[in-house]
Design goal:
The chain has 343 residues and is of the alpha/beta class. Helix content is 38%, strand content 17%. The chain has 11 helices and 16 strands. A 7-stranded mixed beta sheet has the order 6-5-4-7-10-15-16, sandwiched between helices. Strand 15 and strand 16 form a beta hairpin. Helix 2 (55-72) packs antiparallel against helix 3 and helix 3 packs antiparallel against helix 4. It is globular, with a radius of gyration of 19 Å. The protein starts with 12 loop residues before the first strand and ends with a helix.
């Protein structure tokens, strides 16, 4: 197996015994600073404010938030309230609810609040995510033929996970295996996760990447320089419809037109088999100022209104492969994910 350590140097989450440290991703790449979270409220605020972001990472942060809640109170009712606070911080990403509700269910099954037991579970979620990412990297890279170019959207790397990344993990693995001729990343408006985070991550690990404006994606595909669009997911419905960062759907539509394949990479915890299709996925709306201002400075005329959905849903019919740590579903059809994830 390929040694990926040289392409996996970043870790965004640190448990410090009595508090949680989060790499503040709002300040990257100009400033590397950490947030010390000592309460459920501080963790929820950090998740909502995008100080920590990426579906797997906020799930891990939420799990440690539950540990902080258990350390603060032995009342089971307080743990229920903490779970509600954390889940509502980012309602679209299923990993957050999965991790938080998993720890809550564990505590309820024991009949009492045991901080040490919850800590072990949170640490297990973090370790399992890193192992899953490494395995998904292998599985996804195997789909890519040598000499291919890839385009990715948003940030799905070490900063969005326990380490290595989901979609960016596939790119890391494919690069390590010398399968890639070029890596392109969108800037990813309005929070510029691609420009600020993905390009910086790849730079840190010595993987050359070219940054493009979001609106340049279709033209790039028309040149034949990329053969795959590789993206992550915040929720995948049972039929394969995928919620991901806003802008993913239009890139997938362009990819289908230009013969570029689309790969979605996410841990199995991102798959919501209780949700039949993407029409039922709650799409988070955020502050209009994220569109009308940039870096604190206005970019639109005073009084201009903005609509700011954070995610869109890419229909399963536009997706060529969904990669999870449990395996790969090609040309996802109804029932295929349920079969893959069955015990």
């Amino acid at each position: 197996m390929t040694n990926y350590d040289q392409y996996d140097s970043l870790r965004p989450i640190e448990w410090r015994g009595d508090h949680l440290r989060l790499l503040d991703q709002r300040l990257l790449p100009a400033t590397v600073a950490w947030l010390d979270c000592r309460s459920v409220t501080e963790v929820a605020d950090a998740i909502h404010a995008l100080a920590v972001r990426g579906a797997p990472a906020i799930g891990i942060a939420g799990a440690y938030g539950m540990v902080l809640a258990a350390q603060a109170s032995s009342d089971p009712a307080d743990l229920v309230t903490a779970a509600q606070t954390l889940v509502q911080a980012r309602p679209t990403a299923v990993n957050l609810a999965w991790a938080v509700q998993g720890l809550l269910a564990s505590a309820q099954s024991e009949g009492h609040v045991d901080p040490a037991a919850l800590l072990l579970r949170a640490q297990s979620i973090e370790r399992e995510d890193l192992a899953a990412n490494r395995h998904m990297g292998e599985l996804g890279a195997a789909q890519i033929t040598g000499g291919s170019g890839v385009l990715t959207h948003c940030n799905t790397g070490s900063l969005a996970t326990a380490g290595f990344g989901t979609a960016l993990g596939v790119i890391r693995a494919a690069w390590a295996q010398q399968r890639l001729s070029a890596v392109f990343a969108t800037e990813t408006r309005p929070w510029l996760q691609g420009a600020r985070l993905t390009a910086w991550e790849l730079q840190q690990d010595g993987i050359p990447a070219t940054l493009i404006a979001d609106s340049a994606g279709a033209h790039l595909m028309s040149t034949g320089r990329v053969q795959w669009l590789v993206v992550g997911a915040d929720r995948i419905a049972a039929n394969g419809d995928t919620a991901n960062k806003i802008g993913t759907c239009q890139l997938a539509i362009a990819a289908r037109h230009y013969g570029v394949k689309v790969m979605v990479v996410a841990p199995s915890s991102t798959v919501d088999l209780a949700m039949a299709n993407g029409r039922d996925i709650e799409i988070e709306l955020r502050d209009e100022a994220e569109i009308t201002r940039l870096g604190g400075q206005p970019t639109a005329a005073p009084g201009v209104r903005a609509w700011n959905p954070v995610f869109d849903v890419t229909p399963a019919g536009l997706i060529d492969a969904i990669v999870t740590e449990r395996g790969v579903v090609e040309q996802p059809a109804p029932g295929a994910l349920a079969q893959l994830l069955s015990p």
